[in-house]
């Protein structure tokens, strides 16, 4: 990660990105002059306090929010031309939200296969792929259940499977496990790391959890309170694969303390 990286190695390039909601005296700056490059297969976290503009930045990358200034490129293609979104640029992107957003009248497999159905993939192929990815995220045997029969953690597994079913090149995660209990969240974070590493998917996670950011990421992008402004980019020195024992090690706790200090300074 950095600003001097050759363009061919950058999956995502953000330049001078700003977002202002409203106008005149009611204008609110959500993001200001964000610059960032992310390499292929890299896992980064956007770390900052609640309401600092992390999700707004993520939505602009996803093509869901029009920027006020600046540019976003995904694999060399501009996401925005003025207020016009490029579907070619956003096609390799999948996004997962904090809420599972599953259709209750569909089975788990039908929910997971929905992006393939929208894309016109024939029924047999999308069913096979849905069952394959359900097994990958720990949902084997639950493909024919309705979402209402699943726990919160299992619904989030289904949401992750749906995000991965199209083999995306870029995965955007907006606090996907934030509403889960600590043990379930830890377990899903380990599985998320494993899935992303095997798929070699470029991943951006929005979180306000310092531990989560340090544990999952190759680099942590520290944001100041609103408007979101990148104050630091910190590489995580921990080797992969990682397990939960890492979080008990002194060097991990030192890194968490360092990131907390940077967040406190950004908020000052």
Quick synopsis:
The chain has about 270 residues and is α/β, with parallel strands linked by helices. It contains 8 helices and 12 strands.
Description:
This protein is an alpha/beta fold and 268 residues long. The chain folds into two domains: 1-92 and 172-268, Rossmann fold, CATH 3.40.50.300; 95-167, no CATH class. It contains eight helices and twelve strands. The protein has helices at residues 54-62, 87-90, 108-118, 123-136, 152-164, 182-199, 210-216, 250-267, and strands spanning 10-21, 28-39, 43-47, 69-74, 77-78, 80-81, 84-85, 93-96, 170-174, 202-207, 219-223, 230-235. The strands form three sheets. A six-stranded mixed β-sheet has the order 8-9-10-3-11-12, with helices on both faces. A four-stranded antiparallel β-sheet has the order 2-1-4-5. Helix 4 packs across helix 5 and helix 7 (210-216) packs across helix 8. The longest helix has 18 residues, at 182-199. Mean pLDDT is 91; it is low at 2-8.
Low-pLDDT parts are 2-8
Output the CATH homologous superfamily of the largest domain: P-loop containing nucleotide triphosphate hydrolases
**What does the average pLDDT come to?**
91
Our count of helices gives 8
Radius of gyration: 19 Å
CATH topology heading of the largest domain:
Rossmann fold
**Class of the largest domain, according to the CATH hierarchy?**
Alpha Beta
Report how far apart the termini are. Answer: 26 Å
Shape: globular
Helical fraction equals 25-40%
For the record, the CATH architecture of the largest domain stands as 3-Layer(aba) Sandwich
- Give the SSE order as H and E letters: EEEHEEEEHEHHHEHEHEEH
Structural class: alpha/beta
């Amino acid at each position: 990660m950095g600003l001097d990286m050759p363009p061919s190695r950058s999956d995502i390039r953000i330049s001078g990105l700003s977002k202002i909601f409203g106008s005149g005296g009611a204008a609110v700056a959500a993001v200001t002059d964000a610059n960032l490059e992310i390499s292929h297969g890299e896992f980064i976290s956007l770390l900052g306090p609640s309401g600092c503009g992390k999700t707004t930045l993520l939505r602009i990358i996803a093509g869901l929010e029009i920027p006020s200034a600046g540019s976003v490129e995904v694999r060399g293609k501009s996401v925005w031309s003025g207020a016009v979104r490029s579907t070619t640029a956003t096609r390799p992107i999948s996004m997962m939200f904090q809420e599972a957003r599953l259709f209750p009248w569909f089975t788990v497999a039908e929910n997971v296969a929905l992006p393939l159905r929208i894309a016109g993939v024939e029924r047999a192929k999308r069913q096979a792929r849905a069952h394959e990815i359900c097994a990958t995220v720990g949902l084997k045997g639950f493909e024919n259940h309705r979402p209402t029969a699943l726990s919160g953690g299992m619904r989030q597994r289904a949401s992750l499977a749906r995000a991965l079913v199209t083999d995306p090149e870029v995965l955007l995660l907006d606090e996907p496990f934030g509403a889960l209990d600590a043990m379930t969240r830890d377990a899903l974070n380990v599985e998320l790391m494993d899935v992303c590493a095997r798929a070699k998917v470029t991943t951006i996670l929005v979180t306000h959890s310092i531990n989560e950011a340090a544990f999952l990421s190759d680099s942590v992008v520290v944001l100041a309170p609103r408007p979101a402004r990148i104050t630091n980019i910190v590489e995580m020195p921990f080797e992969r694969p990682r397990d939960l024992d890492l979080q008990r090690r002194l060097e991990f706790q030192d890194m968490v303390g360092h990131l907390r200090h940077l967040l406190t300074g950004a908020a000052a």
